[in-house]
Design a protein that fits this description.
The complex is a heterodimer of chains A (286) and B (280).
Chain A: H1 2-8, H2 11-36, H3 40-59, H4 64-82, H5 89-110, H6 116-123, H7 131-160, H8 162-167, H9 172-194, H10 200-203, H11 205-210, H12 217-242, H13 246-272
Chain B: E1 8-17, E2 20-30, E3 35-39, H1 46-53, E4 61-66, E5 78-81, H2 95-104, H3 115-127, H4 143-155, E6 161-165, H5 173-190, E7 193-197, E8 210-215, E9 218-222, H6 224-227, H7 230-237, E10 241-246, E11 249-254, H8 271-279
Parallel strand pairs in B: 3-7, 3-8, 5-6, 6-7
Antiparallel strand pairs in B: 1-2, 1-4, 8-9, 10-11
Helix pairs in contact in B: 2-3, 2-4, 3-4, 4-5
Classes of the chains: A mainly alpha (286), B alpha/beta (280).
Chain lengths: 286, 280
């Protein structure tokens, strides 16, 4: 404990914790929708092409974080324009991702210096973020959360019940593209912690674990955020204490959370509420 | 004034997707307070008809009117029960939440607690007798239970017109009765208009005022006794069709399997009736 307090005095630790909190909140909310909309593959594509973007920016000696954001945002627009409908979307994502990754390889090859920055983007470097990066991440995070707050209700409607949502006047197609852009921002944020290759640990797992804990949609979002915060801050802390990479601990904590939610806590909660669960009899048919 | 306006009016409406004409030159008035069954084989454009009323598709030619107005998306005067789509069993969404979306799901913002809205939701759930399972995850409910909650969702906004797209599909006979009664009760209580798409007229035969039969872009409308005759349907299909009444049920039988179609899908029909029909 003493050691943690001593570490918190360091600038780079404060930066990491501040950035981690914003990133975890964004990831927690977004991952609920990623899970409900079944968009894991799209998350992966946004992350990998974010890598292409940052490799390109590194080559041009520009900010890798901005490159990340640019890469994933451009990908989001492409996926959105080429295939908004769920069916066939995976195919479009695959097509776009394959080409984009090829570009990433090109940029890395062209870059003559030691590509430690590229390595950082693949595996995460939250303890290495600068003051400037933290500010940038904060701004992106706040914009993302504000946008989500505005569209939360119709996005939920369009996600769980698209036919009726469309009939009730919800702009389902526009929300699909907007959500892709929100995902792009969330991906660019989460990559700071866990890197491109481990992105799903923050953008899928918290949402997937949360839905095992409650049938209430709002509460599921709260749980998802709590799990993301636990994994991110826990991961940063353990990494500082052990000198191992942050992503090692974040992935471990998030996998453990999922297992606990699925096999221990979830079933326990369900047993407690058994009397109100349905399907036993069907009085309703009378 | 609204009473004299037809709930829905089609005036020489043609809808085409690309070169395929779904229906052509449909003219029809549906009086307020009637229960209309929309019948026809798969792909006859029954769903498109509902989508035109919802303002989601615009006719290629002609005009659709809802209470004298051009249909507009999100019209609160129309309730909609879409074709069966299942929910993921792990989706964190209760029946209560689904019904609530029917009130204000289309509005921007987060949607905080609202006592008045909660009361309306509770009343809608009670009206379909779904209180017992309204707080469970909706994906874990049976098809019939989900359908009741969908109807509650469609009715919670107190619409004057209810559009139902195959609400009886995937339900066993018991549930088909229950869901039909539920919709009929609402129609009589609220004086509402019901447009009910179904491929099997039998479960709703007792309650329908009119039927609209759509085949290959052609259509016939009237009371069941007027429309569901061998003569009318043969004309509509352009080939010989028999309408047989067996045990109070209506079966529509084509002359060969090639052009064959029955109003019933095989799984809705007792096997013995199937044979009877084949021998005809």
């Amino acid at each position: 404990m003493d050691q943690v307090i001593r570490l918190l005095a360091y600038d780079f630790v404060q930066n990491a914790v501040a950035a981690g909190i914003v990133i975890a909140v964004v990831s927690g909310v977004v991952s609920r929708f990623v899970v409900a909309r079944n968009m894991s593959f799209a998350v992966h594509a946004l992350a990998e092409l974010g890598f292409t973007g940052s490799a390109g920016f590194i080559l041009l000696r520009l900010s890798p974080v901005l490159g990340l954001l640019t890469g994933s945002a451009v990908t989001a627009v492409f996926i959105g324009l080429l295939g908004v409908r769920a069916r066939g979307r995976d195919v479009v994502v695959g097509v776009v991702m394959a080409f984009g990754l090829g570009l990433g390889v090109l940029f890395i090859t062209l870059y003559k210096g030691y590509s430690s920055q590229a390595f950082a983007i693949l595996f995460g470097t939250i303890t290495g973020v600068s003051r400037g990066d933290v500010l940038l991440l904060m701004v992106i995070g706040v914009i993302t959360l504000a946008t989500l707050a505005v569209i939360y209700r119709p996005l939920t409607f369009a996600t769980v019940d698209p036919e009726v949502a469309e009939a009730r006047g919800v702009p389902v197609g526009m929300l699909a593209v907007l959500f892709l852009l929100i995902m792009a921002a969330a991906v660019a944020e989460a990559i700071q912690v866990v890197g491109v290759l481990l992105i799903l640990t923050l953008l899928i797992t918290p949402g997937a674990a949360a839905e095992r804990l409650t049938p209430k949609p709002g509460r599921a979002v709260v749980y998802s955020v709590a799990i993301a915060l636990f994994c991110t801050l826990g991961g940063i802390g353990l990494s500082l204490l052990t000198n191992l990479a942050v992503s090692v601990f974040v992935t471990t904590l998030s996998f453990a959370s999922y297992l606990a939610a699925r096999f221990v806590i979830g079933p326990a909660l369900q047993n407690r509420s058994t009397p109100t669960t349905p399907t036993a009899s069907s009085r309703s048919a009378t | 004034m609204a009473e004299t306006l037809p709930a829905v009016r089609f005036d020489r409406v043609t809808v085409a997707f690309g070169t395929r004409q779904v229906w052509s030159d449909l003219s029809l008035e549906i009086a307020s307070g009637t229960f209309v069954a929309i019948l026809g084989p798969n792909g006859a454009g029954k769903t498109s008809l509902l989508r035109a009323i919802l303002g989601l598709i615009t006719p290629t030619t002609g005009r659709v009117e809802v209470l004298g107005q051009t249909p507009r998306r999100g019209d609160p005067g129309i309730g909609y029960v879409p074709q069966h789509s299942s929910f993921d069993p792990d989706l964190p969404l209760r029946g209560r939440d689904l019904v609530r979306l029917g009130i204000d799901g289309h509005r921007w913002g987060i949607g905080w607690r609202d006592r008045a809205a909660d009361m309306r939701v509770a009343r809608a759930i009670a009206s379909v007798e779904a209180e017992r399972y309204a707080d469970a995850a909706i994906g874990r409910l049976s098809g019939g239970e989900q359908q009741r909650l969908r109807i509650a969702q469609a009715l919670v906004g107190e619409p004057g017109i209810l559009l139902c797209d195959e609400p009886l599909a995937n339900l066993d006979l018991r549930y088909q009765q229950a869901i039909t009664d539920l919709i009929r009760d609402w129609q009589q209580r609220a004086g509402g208009t019901v447009l009910f798409v179904t491929h099997d007229v039998n479960p709703v035969l007792r309650v329908v005022d009119k039927v609209l039969f759509v085949v290959n872009g052609r259509w016939a409308a009237g009371t069941p006794d007027e429309v569901l005759t061998s003569e009318r349907l043969s004309e509509l299909y352009g080939s010989h069709v028999d309408v047989v009444r067996v045990h109070g049920r209506i079966l529509v039988v084509g002359e060969s399997t090639e052009t064959g179609f029955t109003l019933d899908e095989p799984h809705h029909m007792p096997l013995t009736v199937d044979r009877h029909e084949g021998a005809h």
